[in-house]
Design a protein that fits this description.
The complex is a heterodimer of chains A (about 210) and B (about 950). By secondary structure, chain A is α+β, with helices and mostly antiparallel strands. Chain A contains 4 helices and 13 strands. Chain B has 5 domains: about 120 residues, 2Fe-2S iron-sulphur cluster binding domain, sarcosine oxidase, alpha subunit, N-terminal domain (Ubiquitin-like (UB roll)), CATH 3.10.20; about 180 residues, 3-Layer(bba) Sandwich (FAD/NAD(P)-binding domain), CATH 3.50.50.60; about 90 residues, Arc Repressor Mutant, subunit A; about 230 residues, Gyrase A, domain 2; about 140 residues, Gyrase A, domain 2 (2-Layer Sandwich), CATH 3.30.1360.120. Chain B is elongated. In chain B, a hairpin with a 3-residue loop joins strand 20 and strand 21. Classes of the chains: A alpha+beta (about 210), B alpha+beta (about 950).
């Protein structure tokens, strides 16, 4: 065997300098100070659960299509499609999250580590709906898409899961997770930055140890 | 006298409602000469203040044109501003340093030689294009070339810097189109009732006609503006226009001149649309009505009250309504000598205006001739019912009011203000208040209906056409005489007249001329205006630039994890669908030789990959592929071809069995999405009872093919957990292990290039690491990257067909030359019935290997294979010069009687030459026995 350096995980979104390795991922150490921030959250673990929409797995997960909730482990469980759930967890915890996924006997269920398959971006700030309105036809008003909403739609002409996941105390800071197929992650990120440039969007480095 | 007064002799002292900022003078150029204006001026008002009366030449006859409406829709004021053509000079606000020029004139605005068209005007009337330029047909290109030189419009250059066009979506409860007093009031009422409101106004400021009104109007204007400013539920868009209304109140709104974008298209889904578009003053049709100095009363009032510009010195006013009377009063107030007011209500009339570059006199109904430099007409109003028409309304004509009124609208569209009826400001505001509240109620879908008071139609003289002929369509130079002539020729329907004469088809799109055109036609045909009807107003209501429609360019692209490496190493990019791929790093032939002699590596990440899980996967594979899948052991890989239900080849690829209930299916790069949909379609609609989950993993894995005689040696240096010995890991098998320190990598032994090769699928986040490690560790073995072109050469050497290139939308599976794979003894599979029939017909073209006899000639792909003089009996689908063999090689389709090995066929080259090629024994040109890839 050749002498081989330890692998470093890379997001499809090129991290601006300066960079550092965090939880095995190469990330930017830039910190945003403005009100509108965008962060490459690809290092978060992503696990896909497929099962019957109305079966025991659905009951155990307890999250309906179009909604998201955190479980007792801090994993964000997203009802991302009919009979489909996306579990978002801390970096490097995909195996644990997958192991915790319900597997009741007799029901056909598959659990797949999706971490390397998808890109994930977090857009935060009161202006984030305005930025999204430049790229997506969905109504991001509170009355239509309140906190914890989840939907699959077209963002910048790209199939994207949009999850409203407000942050901060009492979830007062408007925030969205945007989840897309990995190879278009850089494109989606660039489109969001472009849409936010007149709203003073800033790139924020990934720091989260949890979702 | 100040410098400004010298430069702007028609500028008035401060007016109560003026919008110019006298403390901010601006300099600009007009046809090369320096001019001055103020912030808040439009280009036209600044020019008018400086004494300019002629702004443009007309479209066809090149008659001099001045201000008519002094609004966005003024047909005489389309100008070139810097590098932007067709700027509405009566709307666009002045900027410091603007370079403004007239357009459609040569050599100058003052002396335009194409004004000679007027001399032959009687020969180039309506429809002359259709009669004159039809024959002989051979001259049509010449006609087009000459006519193009006469087309109106400014100039633009492909070298101009690209402007930023924005786009956004909006979801208001209520959109109010028009922010006159009624629109503002409706918006306020809707917001006070709990609705989120979007208030859209075409002008730069809110207020409509209140802006150029008297003291009382201005007081009301300020009050309404204060209320709007204090209402957070109203988003105001000025200098914006609702250009279209579509089903479900899907509205297209264009915002102009934003701080960060020249235009923005807003796609709004409104629960309720309130149309408060007001009324547009229509011109009066009489001889000389297009001479510069003939203006509408609203134009005069705008110039005086908004921009403090004296429109003339000696005026004659034709008035049929109070607004005309008010214009006369305004003129008198600023010291213009109003030489006569002709009151239509008393039977007085205007017969003709005379003058060339400007009005010099008018002739009245009683024979009086009055010298003047300004003629003001207030003949009536046109209701701009465009948005109502788009909602399905057919406005009805009310003769006593001389106007059209809305008739029947869907529940989610409400009219208010002048477009809905007649009344004083208080009556219109009361109507608007109720309309706004009702709009909010309908948007909320609850509450008691609000009673909307009826607005009367009102009374107004029907005064459209005078005793002489004049211009009807100022944009297209269509006169009342043209319309009568068309009617005499049999074009007696308003829609036919429109198309024959082009009336209402110019940039103004009928806002000024529709009703007059209908009035002329009705007079010609003896029908009433109501019987004649109007043309249909379709979107867009106002001109929209292509930039606004395009918005920001959003075209998704896809990159492999190794893309940045490819860029850094000089790869020539290949756009393949949404993917950007490395086509080559240098000479593709050299890349081929390196693979054949040493080892190469190619990024094949775009290959489609579907993770199939569940106990019924074999049944699914048997259903979708033409070959058999029941007995695929764990660790084995099999090639398969998929057909659509018509038996046409859909895609191909290999599928490996990774575990008891887990398979990984690969597809072609371009077919990945199609196959996923195809598989899901079958599972969800035809076999919902089967236990199979399909998970697209195309870019979950960074895929790379390591190919060449030294590939095994290279992989032995970086692979853990996999025995690479050919006995332990033979051809068409799959293994899972650690590669370059990365766990969970899959390795397939397959051979698209025809070489010993390993296709490695590594978790994408480590793709670049694995790629770089292989190149680093294999350096002494001579590893080099190769691109798509080299891969295509090698696959052709090996005779591997590409679906979509070596097949087409009619190629059924037997025609692809894969008889060996088609198992018609299976119970069923997609496309089987069609393939049974194809086999029995035996009359299809077949894909074969072709060897040109002159190996130095590479027939271009798509070259036809012919017989006799020109009978097409096939075509070349793939061709390359083989670096391995040193001669050209091909694949191609041939007719059934030519498919036997050894048959000589004739290939017609694009330059007309013909060459001979021989049908080969098999598709493969290199290593047909497969010794190299099985090694």
């Amino acid at each position: 065997m050749a002498d081989i350096a330890a692998p470093v995980a890379r997001s499809p979104i090129a991290p601006p300098e300066p960079t550092a390795v965090l939880d095995g991922w190469l990330v930017t150490t830039q910190r945003a100070v403005g009100a509108l921030r965008i962060c490459d959250a690809t290092p978060l673990s992503k696990v896909l659960v497929r099962a019957a929409e109305d079966g025991a797995v659905a009951s155990a997960l307890g999250v309906e299509l179009g909604r998201s909730e955190r479980d007792e482990h801090g994993t964000l469980v997203v009802g991302s499609g009919p009979g489909e759930w996306l579990l978002l967890a801390a970096p490097g915890s995909a195996a644990e999250a997958a192991a915790r996924a319900p597997r009741p006997g007799g029901e056909f269920v598959t659990v797949t580590d999706f971490t390397h398959s998808r890109a994930l971006v977090r857009l935060t700030g009161a202006e984030s709906p305005v930025v999204l309105a430049k790229l997506c036809a969905i109504d991001f008003a509170d009355a239509v898409t309140p906190n914890s909403s989840a939907l699959r739609t077209s963002v910048a002409k790209l199939v994207t899961d949009v999850i409203r996941d407000d942050l901060g105390e009492e979830r007062a800071s408007r925030s969205y997770l945007l989840h897309c197929e990995r190879s278009s992650g850089q494109y989606l990120f660039d489109a969001l930055v472009d849409a936010g440039v007149h709203h003073d969007i800033e790139i924020d480095g990934f720091t989260a140890s949890t979702v | 006298m100040s410098l400004t007064a010298v430069a702007a002799p028609m500028r008035l002292d401060a007016q109560p409602g003026e919008v110019i900022e006298r403390g901010r003078p601006l300099s600009f150029r007009w046809n090369g000469a320096p001019r001055v204006g103020f912030a808040g001026d439009t280009i036209a008002s600044a020019l008018a203040a400086s004494g300019v009366r002629v702004f443009s030449r007309s479209f066809k006859y090149h008659r001099p044109r001045g201000l008519l409406s002094a609004s966005y829709h003024d047909p005489g004021c389309m100008l070139q501003v810097d590098d932007e053509p067709n700027v509405r000079g009566a709307h666009r606000r002045l900027r410091d340093g603007m370079d403004v020029a007239s357009q459609n004139t040569w050599p100058s605005l003052r002396f335009d030689v194409r004004a000679a068209n007027q001399l032959v005007g009687r020969f180039i009337g309506a429809g002359f294009y259709y009669k004159t330029f039809m024959k002989p047909q051979v001259l049509l290109p010449a006609y087009q070339s000459v006519l193009k030189r006469f087309s109106a419009g400014g100039r633009t250059s492909p070298d101009d810097p690209r402007d930023y066009y924005d786009k956004r979506y909006a979801h208001p409860d209520v959109v109010v189109a028009g922010a006159g007093p009624a629109g503002i009031t409706a918006a306020l009422a809707a917001a006070e009732s709990g609705a989120q409101v979007l208030l859209v106004e075409e002008e730069h400021d809110l207020g409509g006609h209140l802006r150029w009104g008297g003291t009382e109007d201005l007081a009301r204007l300020h009050q309404l503006r204060d209320l709007i400013a204090a209402q957070p539920a109203i988003e105001v868009m000025t200098n914006s226009v609702v250009v279209g209304r579509y089903d479900g109140n899907w509205l297209a709104i264009v915002q102009r001149e934003l701080p960060h974008a020249c235009e923005r298209l807003v796609k709004a889904r409104a629960k309720v649309l309130v149309v408060a578009a007001g009324l547009i003053e229509r011109p009066y049709v009489f001889q000389g009505n297009d001479v510069p100095g003939v203006m509408l009363s609203t134009a005069v009032r705008r110039l005086i009250n908004l921009h403090a510009v004296r429109p003339g010195h000696r005026a004659v006013v034709l008035s049929a309504n109070p607004e005309g009377d008010a214009a006369a009063e305004d003129l008198a107030r600023i010291g213009v000598e109003v030489r006569r007011v002709l009151d239509v209500r008393r039977g007085e009339d205007l017969v003709a205006a005379r003058g060339g570059g400007g009005v010099r006199s008018v002739q009245c109904h009683d024979g009086a001739r009055i010298d003047c430099d300004l003629v003001v007409t207030a003949a009536g109003w046109t209701a701009p019912t465009s948005l109502l028409n788009m909602a399905g309304d057919k406005p009805v004509y009310v003769a006593e009011a001389a106007r059209f009124l809305p008739s029947r609208l869907p529940d989610d569209v409400l009219p208010t203000g002048g477009i809905a009826g007649t009344g004083d400001t208080d009556a219109l505001i009361a109507h608007a208040r109720a309309t706004g509240a009702e709009a909010a109620r309908r948007a909320a879908g609850r509450g008691e209906a609000v009673r909307i008071p009826a607005l009367p139609a009102g009374r107004h003289p029907e005064h459209f056409i005078g005793r002489t002929h004049g211009m009807v369509d100022f944009s297209e130079d269509v006169s009342s005489k043209d319309l009568l002539s068309a009617a005499r020729e049999g074009y007696d329907s308003v829609e036919l007249v429109k198309r024959y004469t082009t009336v209402t088809m110019g940039p103004v799109q009928g806002k000024l001329e529709t009703v007059n055109a209908v009035a002329v036609l009705s007079r010609a045909t003896g029908r009433t205006i109501g019987e004649t009807g109007t043309t249909v107003w379709r979107p867009p209501y106002a001109p929209v630039t292509l930039g606004a429609l395009a918005g920001r360019i959003l075209e998704p692209v896809r990159y492999s994890p190794m893309q940045r490496w490819h860029e850094a190493h000089g790869a020539t990019p290949l756009v393949a669908g949404a993917w950007i791929r490395p086509d080559r790093y240098g000479d593709p032939a050299q890349e081929v030789r390196n693979v054949r002699e040493r080892v190469g590596i190619i990024d094949v990440t775009p290959l489609g990959k579907l993770d199939l899980r569940g106990p019924d996967v074999p049944r699914l594979l048997n259903l979708l592929y033409v070959n058999k899948w029941s007995k695929l052991d764990v660790g084995r890989v099999r090639y398969g071809v998929m057909c659509a239900e018509d038996g046409v080849v859909l895609d191909d690829g290999v599928t490996g069995r990774l575990g008891e209930d887990r398979y990984l299916m690969s597809t072609t790069s371009s077919g990945a999405a199609t196959v996923w949909e195809w598989v899901e379609g079958w599972l969800q609609t035809e076999r919902p009872d089967w236990q199979v989950h399909v998970i697209p993993m195309t870019t979950g894995y960074a895929s790379m093919n390591v190919a060449g005689p030294r590939s095994r040696e290279l992989l032995q240096r970086v692979t853990e957990g996999v025995d690479l010995d050919p006995e332990a890991f033979p051809y068409m098998h799959v293994r899972e292990g650690r590669v370059a320190g990365v766990d969970d990598c899959f390795m397939w032994r397959i051979g698209f290039t025809g070489e010993l090769s390993y296709e490695i699928h590594a978790p994408a986040m480590y793709g670049l690491h694995v790629w770089e490690t292989l190149l680093d560790v294999g350096d002494d073995l001579g590893i080099k990257p190769f691109g798509v072109e080299a891969q295509r050469i090698m696959r052709l050497e090996k005779g591997h067909a590409i679906v979509g290139q070596d097949t087409d939308g009619l190629t059924q599976a037997f025609g692809a030359g894969i008889d060996w794979a088609i198992k018609l003894d299976k119970d069923d599979f997609a496309g089987k019935p069609e393939l049974v029939w194809q086999r029995d017909r035996d009359d299809y073209f077949v894909l074969v290997g072709l060897q040109p006899e002159d190996g130095s000639v590479v027939p271009p792909e798509a070259s036809q294979i012919v017989e006799g003089r020109n009978v097409i009996v096939g075509r070349v689908t793939s061709s390359r010069m083989s670096p391995t063999l040193g001669r050209s090689i091909c694949l191609g389709f041939v007719a059934p009687h030519l498919r036997a090995a050894g048959t000589r066929v004739t290939v017609q080259l694009p330059d007309g030459r013909r060459i001979t090629a021989r049908v080969t024994e098999q598709h493969a040109h290199v290593d047909p026995e497969g010794v190299r890839m099985r090694g």
